[in-house]
Amino acid sequence: MSAAPSDKSEKKKQKADKSEKLGEVLDFMRLLWAVDHALQSMSKRMEASLGVTGPQRLVIRIVGRFPGISAGELASVLHIHPSTLTGILKRLESRGIIGRKPDPDDARRALFELSGRGREIDGLKVGTVEAIVRRSLAKLPPRKVAAARDVLGHLALALLEEKE
Predict the structure, then answer these.
(1) Longest Cα pair distance anywhere in the chain, in angstroms?
(2) Residue 97 — pLDDT band, cuts 50, 70, 90?
(3) Residue 13 pLDDT
(4) I want to staple 113 with a disulfide (CB 3.0 to 4.6 A). Which of 12, 39, 67, 106 is the partner?
(5) How far is CA 92 from the centre of its chain?
(6) Alpha-carbon distance 77 to 83, whole Å?
(7) Pairing of the two strands 106-114 and 98-103
(8) CA distances from 63 to 35, 66, 69, 72, 117 (A)
(9) pLDDT at 120
(10) Is 160 a residue whose pLDDT tops 90?
(11) Which phi and psi (to 5°) does residue 70 adopt?
(12) Are 88 and 94 in contact, with CB atoms under 8 Å apart?
């Protein structure tokens, strides 16, 4: 049985009161935490259903968009340290999802491309984090999406700078 309208509105008011008491920074961090937790949960579901995690899928998507990308370029696109990427690339390569070939201009560098299996995974449209993100973004006006991208970009940069 569903809650009475007054119960729903009271719960909504209590939730708003808690957010107000947290203040802008803690309330924003609470939302970031919720997104992080949801991403982790979805990543586990993707691994069970599709055979790849969210981060692996993102690497597959980027390699699919930029065949012949180097690990350094890929790390730059993802805004992560190359050593963080190494494990993901090794797992994808050992499972035959991506291929590695030497850079003809610099034998020390490897270039990555998708295998046939990688292209299949790259083409998936349902059951992925990006499908949910795509649907969510489509419901918002472009100015709100741009504002969210701006805030998240500034926050990511500030966090990375703090680390250095």
Answers:
(1) 69
(2) very high
(3) 65
(4) 67
(5) 17
(6) 14
(7) antiparallel
(8) 25, 5, 6, 12, 13
(9) 96
(10) no
(11) -85, 165
(12) no
In this structure, the number of other CB atoms found within 10 A of the CB of residue 128 comes to: 22
As a whole number of angstroms, the distance between CA 52 and CA 124 comes to 12
Listed residue (101, 98, 89) closest to 116, CA to CA: 98
Predicted local confidence at residue 18, as pLDDT: 75
**Which distant-in-sequence residues (6+ apart) come within 8 Å of 91 by Cβ?**
56
Query: Model pTM?
Result: 0.83
Q: What is the mean pLDDT of residues 79-106?
A: 94
The 8-class DSSP code of residue 158 comes to: H
User: What is d(CA 94, CA 87) in angstroms, rounded to the nearest whole number?
Assistant: 10
Which residues have a Cβ under 8 Å from the Cβ of 110 and sit 6 or more positions away?
Answer: 70, 71, 100, 101, 102, 103
Structure tokens at 37: 């937790």
Distance in angstroms (rounded) separating the CA atoms of residues 92 and 152: 28
